[in-house]
Amino acid sequence: MNRKLAIEWLKASYSDLVLIAEIIDNDFLTHMIAFHSQQSIEKAFKAIMG
């Protein structure tokens, strides 16, 4: 994987983290926090593993 693609994966990962920060205090959205946490980790792994 090239560096540009890795950076795009990291940006996508970060956007999941930003979303989590926005909804973290909403107990109704706990399942969405779990989902976006998993997505962020997966995207970061994709960036690292290439």
Can you describe this structure in just a few lines?
The chain is mostly helical and 50 residues long. The protein has helices spanning 3-23, 30-49.
Could you explain how this protein is built, in words?
- This protein has 50 residues and is mostly helical.
- The chain has a domain of 25 residues.
- The protein contains two helices and no strands.
- Helix 1 packs antiparallel against helix 2.
- 6% of the residues are buried.
Highlighted features:
mainly alpha, 0% strand, 50 residues, 82% helix, single chain
The run of helices and strands is HH
Mean pLDDT: 96
Structural class: mainly alpha
* Separation of the first and last Cα atoms: 5 Å
Unreliable runs, pLDDT <50, ≥5 residues? Answer: none
Fraction of residues in H or I helices:
over 70%
Largest sheet: none
Give the percentage of residues in beta strands. under 5%
Number of strands: 0
Figure out the total of helices.
Answer: 2
